[in-house]
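Course assignment 3, question 2. Fill in each field.
Student: A.L.
Task: Predict the tertiary structure for the chain below.
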Amino acid sequence: MSLKTYAGKRDFNVTSEPAAESGRGHERPIFVIQEHHASRLHWDFRLEADEVLKSWAVTKEPVPDTSIRRLAVEVEDHPLAYADFSGDIPEGEYGAGHVEIWDHGTYRNLMAGKEKPMTLAESIEAGHVEVELHGKKLRGGFALIRMKGNDGRNWLLVKMKDDEARHDSKAQEAAKKEKPEHAKPTGRRRTQRQERPAPPEEIECSSTGKMMFPETGITKGDVLAYYGRIADRLIPHLRDRPMTLERLPDGLASAKSPHFWQKDTPDYYPDWIPRAALETEDGRTVEYLLVNDRQTLLYLVNQGTITFHPWLSRIGSLDRPDYVLFDLDPGESSFADAIAVAREIRSVLANEGIDAYAKSSGKTGLHVLAPWHGDGAYDEARTWAMEIAECVTDSLPDAATTERRKSARRGRLYLDVMQNARGHHVVPPYVLRAVPGATISTPLRWEEVTDDLAPDRFDIGSIFRRISHQKDDPIAPLLAAFRNK
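Answer field:
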């Protein structure tokens, strides 16, 4: 199928979305639903057919309730690789905003079993689609029915009557009855915390022999062992922070291995795991996980989490970050430029009497962190961070830029401060990254930030040797700074 419309709407020098290339079809066709925070929040519903993803923009969150119909606007075909896409589409680009995977799985074309069998493409042409979804959130039969008008682009997404619908409807009614009443939302998220039972002393782990990092021979058991040993250093950077999980249940086995981002907590997670229910501006509630203890950490790793991505702020003061992040992304520039920029950030901050802390990103760049002591919340912190960044780029104009458009960077390092925003997440110290080398985002002493440093120097096999030779954790003073706030 043609992806010309998809390609014509995007500048792939700017956006990180997949290129307009058809992919090899799966043995069992897949579906994906992506939560898309564009100019208007919607859910992109995509079904694999003819080596592309047939796509609809659903105006409200899909639900397994037969009494509710959702408007679904048919949009252009997307490449199969889009099923794995999550991240930020830059401002000025088509569909600008944050995208994350809301649900995914396989599906069965129910129209193929009718008296007059039809492929998915044929049923779309006929204006009536029936599929059986096998996802995490949505299961069972769903129908897409074309409406009249708008050039045939408007459809209705409807849950079909089946066992899944009856079960889910009952569960929804029970949830409505148990849900406590709240005051009307004021346009900002609010926090709801509940008492939880004590966690078990030990976590039962499964499939510990599964190969998670084939290039380095790292198994799921190795990943669990790493997080168990590093927990005392890692958890203080996670505690009481709403968490986004980067999950790869099958590891990096292949390019088609599941790789998705999870914010909302599934109902089947045990009650002893702490949550924070945060209401969105449109009245939805997202129940974030809080990784406050070793048991929760290991339970989530056993569920396939590779990397933990916390907010910059904590429960109780979610509008105010504890620290500011300067993300040094070399892109087409060199790691030597990242070294020079990091040291310049430190120098500029020192002139303001502020300590700076460096760490490897665990991928190709560096992170510089600074405690936020200023007045105000995220907007003020980000404005201040941009002022610091512009001082640095003024000093190193050939090495760094704050320009978000890739085409305008002209080979320079991107000094990114835009992650300093409410609801955005960051890479904390000591997490494992989902890259072939099984590298670790590692705190650094400033005397190590030299041209001799390599971005992939620290990995799951070497990190504890490094720690054993350290007298102190290089990033411990940052923890102390925001603990004392």
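Instructor remarks: The radius of gyration is 24 Å. The chain has ten helices and 23 strands.
Grade: pending
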